[in-house]
Amino acid sequence: MIVSHSHRFIFVHVSKAAGTSIERALGPFRHHPPDTRLNRWRCKLGLQWDYRAYRFHQHDSIRVARRVLPVALFDDYFKFAFVRNPWDWLASLYGYLQRTPGHRHHRRVRTMSFAEYVEFEIRRGRRSQSGFLTDNGGELLMDFVGRFENLDADFARVCAHLGLGAISLPHRNANRESRPYRSLYDAATRERVAAHWAGDIRRFGYRFEEPAP
């Protein structure tokens, strides 16, 4: 997450939806609270009550920002994020976990087939893009939700709205899996994702894109 008090915005970093590139591009506008061991400890334990000193984590949800920031600031700041087609999102997560030894799930996922990975995530029941962007009742708290599939144009809209001028996105952490996500799916895995992530699919208007003939 990036919070900018100078330019009055909150960017929520949804995993595997170009968030690393966006954070790098918007880094100059980020508020930098004290980077001390004491302050990190206070933030981790929820003991830091001064919003100007609070250190947000990379994948904090919008609920954390609403809890930490004064109501007037939270309501006034422009809140935005980017999301991704859920079928593509799961495929990207799978590739990332398989090739990232430092991730806590790497050893488990590296030997899984894609179908096994989908079932693993369904059993865990913890991953959803809406979960980053809604309150506990499922109400969307964002002012703008861009699409990974329209990244450059939607990011340009955000920059124009914030008066930041033209900022180029460095495309970092790109998925090195070259084959299209559709090739990972069969009918069963496609329907499993459709059922379990129906909320994201409905909220953000996605569908499984059939390959071109």
The CA-CA distance between the termini, in Å, is 40 Å
Number of domains: 1
Overall body shape: globular
Structural class: alpha/beta
Please outline the major beta sheet. Answer: 4 strands, mixed
The first-level CATH class name: Alpha Beta
The CATH topology label is Rossmann fold
The number of E-state strands comes to 4
Give average pLDDT, whole number.
90
Order of helices and strands: EEHHHHEHHHHEHHH
Q: State the CATH superfamily name.
A: P-loop containing nucleotide triphosphate hydrolases
Low-confidence stretches: none
CATH-scheme architecture: 3-Layer(aba) Sandwich
Query: Count of helical segments?
Result: 11
The radius of gyration over CA amounts to 18 Å
Short descriptors:
globular; Rossmann fold; 11 helices; four-stranded mixed β-sheet; 213 residues; 8% strand; alpha/beta
Write the SSE topology:
Elements: E1 2-4, E2 9-12, H1 19-26, H2 37-44, H3 62-68, H4 71-76, E3 78-83, H5 86-98, H6 106-109, H7 114-124, H8 130-133, E4 144-147, H9 151-162, H10 187-196, H11 198-204
Parallel strand pairs: 2-3, 3-4
Antiparallel strand pairs: 1-2
